[in-house]
Amino acid sequence: MKNALDILSPSYDNVVPNLDAMPISELRKFRKKYANPSQMSAMRLVGIRSDAVKIAQELSKYAFYKSKAMAARGRGDLRRAIPDENFCETIYRGLPDDIKW
Question: 55-91: per-residue pLDDT in tens?
Fold first, then answer.
């Protein structure tokens, strides 16, 4: 049986998925799950760190803007897609290196 420290150890979860490889439906689920995460949920995603909730929320924003950009590109609307993609790049650059995909 796993204890609390096992659950939060790097070997348990703590793997941020490649949001660029997710379909729109999965990005939307990710966005909803981490828009306002608990500390425990955030730490399961990004590991034990004082800013886990903030990072999870940034990843949630990334998922939101990525899904918007993908939908816009799907409609052929590059005018809307490119600013959202640029916002994703800004968020990604601000992430800690150890959680980038």
Answer: 999 999 999 999 999 999 999 999 999 999 999 999 9
Q: What is the dihedral of CA 11, 13, 16, 17, to 10 degrees?
A: 110
CB of 34 closer than 8 Å to CB of 54:
no
H-run or E-run covering 39 = helix 39-46
Predicted TM-score of the model (pTM)? 0.86
Q: Where are the domains of the chain?
A: 23-99
For 65-80, letters b (16+ CB in 10 Å) and e give: bbbbbbbbeeeeeeee
The pair of three-digit structure tokens given for residue 88, joined into one six-digit string = 């994703």
Q: Confirm if 96 and 70 have CB atoms less than 8 A apart.
A: no
CB 84 within 8 A of CB 72: yes
* Residue located via tokens 């916002």: 87
